[in-house]
Every structure is written in structure tokens, then in C-alpha cells.
Design a protein that fits this description.
With 79 residues, this protein is mostly helical. It contains three helices and no strands. 66% of the residues lie in helices and 0% in strands. The N and C termini lie far apart (32 Å).
């Protein structure tokens, strides 16, 4: 598989997206006993390393990462 080169902002977004996925995995595993079997089974398919996710799921994580970047920019913590 070919690895794409990211500019610094793209690399930041990708790193934040990976952290978002890790956080979601941690949370979803913690509450998995409280949800239906169907929901848990759906979630379990995404309990993998970020690199193994589909592009569609990765993009959902990037949406949240972009929100973090927007907030950091609004507070002038990053350019």
C-alpha cells in the first residue's frame, strides 16, 4: 500500500484523528455491556488499530480532528 505524504496540518489532523479513534475504542469498550448485541457487534468491527480502518471511518474521525484544529486556531494556539 502506498503511503501518502501529508503537509504539517494534514499530519496534525491525522494524528488527532488517530487519538479520537483510540478514545472512542476505549469508551465503546467500557460501555459495550450496556448496549444491544447488534450495536456491540457493529462496534467490534471498528475495535482495530486506526491504520486498519476504512477510509470512510477514518474520515469520520478526521471530522472531529478538524473541530479540534478549528478551536486551537480560534484561540490562536496554532496558526
Amino acid at each position: 500500500m502506498k503511503t501518502r505524504q501529508l503537509n504539517p496540518l494534514g499530519a496534525l489532523i491525522e494524528s488527532l484523528a488517530e487519538i479520537e479513534h483510540e478514545q472512542w475504542v476505549h469508551w465503546s469498550q467500557a460501555v459495550a455491556g450496556d448496549v444491544s448485541d447488534a450495536t456491540r457487534n457493529k462496534w467490534q468491527r471498528s475495535w482495530v488499530a486506526y491504520a486498519e480502518l476504512t477510509e470512510k471511518v477514518k474520515e469520520a474521525n478526521r471530522v472531529w480532528a478538524r473541530k479540534v484544529v478549528k478551536l486551537l486556531r480560534q484561540r490562536t494556539l496554532i496558526p
